[in-house]
Model the fold of this input.
Amino acid sequence: MALYTMKFGGTSVGSPEAIDQALTIIQRETQAGHRVVGIVSAMSGVTDSLLKTVKAAIQGDRWTFQEVNRDIRHRHEEATHRLIEPPPEREITLKKINDLLDEHLQLCEAITILGEATPRMIDAIVSFGERLSRRVVAAALDARGIPSQAFDGTQLIVTDNNYQDAEPLWEITSKQIKERLVPAIENGISPIITGFIGATPDGTITTLGRGGSDFSAAIIAAYIDSDELTIWTDVDGVMTTDPRIDKRAKVLPYVSYTEVGELAFYGAKVLHPKTVQPIIARNIPMRVRNTFNPEHPGTQIGADIVATSSVIKAVTSIRSISMLTVSGKGMLGVPGIAGRTFLATSRAGANILMISQSSSEQSFCFTVRDADANEVKYAVEDELRAEINHQDVDGVDILKEVVIVTVVGGGMRGTPGVAGRVFTTLGDHSINVISIAQGGSECSISFVIEEDALDEAVICLHDLALASVEDIN
Ligand code: ADP
Ligand code: ASP
Ligand code: MG
Done:
């Protein structure tokens, strides 16, 4: 008897038909005698819609937030009517949905009165998506005769108060999961849990960042000691590139934890960047599979690195990036400037995606999201004020609206010529590379280019990755 953790993404619970399909996947395993823990996202589009209500509420646009609220209510009511019998359970679920959506309206109203929304309020609003979907899914599973219990992530995942991108407090999260969730599993119940959300130790709702349900599922899989974590989504697995950029993208039958971690960090939306963190130490096997094509084996993810002849297995990209350059003749050999720059960046609340330095030490550059760039520039200039006044440092230049493209492949370590092949390919396509960095794990190379060249760069490098797929089995 195995214990499986299964996460169903937004599309996988996005309609009554999709939920039905997800339930069939769970039922197949429970009928075979296995135990299943389900983690669910909000129905597709609901998180975006909830964010829209925040914006409307700030602007005092009651019509829009009420309209969106009605639409979300309608989708959940329809799913409840279609999936949940008999009537008493259906009525209970409908009442819960309506109570939650009334609460949503009250919060929107409060934002309208205040005229602003704090990150804490935004998290409270977006949490409704998962809190609604898990009620429908849990009740529908029960209606199929599979005893289920619904849990909110707020009861299990305890986080810091870094709203919108909260970090779990591992020890107490582990304790909560062991005390609250494990007994339900041992009693033969299939828990259905909200992804994406957690709560601070004093109970305030937080979220783990966009796409965070994958991370929730990995945290739970780790602490219940699951035999496997399956991410059920709307594509057949992790692909050689984003299928929306290049339709030729193929499913990779196998990738390592490190490779998939790099892919996710550098923009592959299929997984939240922190997903592998909790399971890597425990070596829990993971799979990415398609809810709508469950016969496909998907992508297996594990610890081994499988080398392929062309080394490069996948290409990813992130848009809306700014590159900041710190330069000055007086920087040569002065210790600590880079360290202070990065500390100032983190104080400004920004994540650094890529760093590179030329050997002359007269400048170094790093990239952050466009939205953070100005604030980071001011924070770093403030930090280096004395050096700027002494003219040791010239200042911080920003190059906005560039993109990062990353090629990933575990065999890069110790394989000469990979970077050469990448940059020759880009040169053949006359793509100008602005800066380059190799990941610390030596399984990725990232570079910054102009936004206009993104599609061409991804497609020409993708040719190298496509050649790899046949080698992996
Ligand atoms: P879910 O709601 O199931 O979490 P997401 O929309 O978050 O699904 O992620 C799945 C989507 O990620 C796919 O539909 C695909 O368009 C996109 N994607 C981007 N890069 C990749 C990649 N390398 N492999 C697979 N899918 C990718
Ligand atoms: N619903 C959240 C989002 O859209 C979390 C998730 O789907 O993983 O970002
Ligand atoms: Mg996702």
Notes: Residues 87-114 form the longest helix (28 residues). Residues 158 and 201 are 6 Å apart (CA to CA).
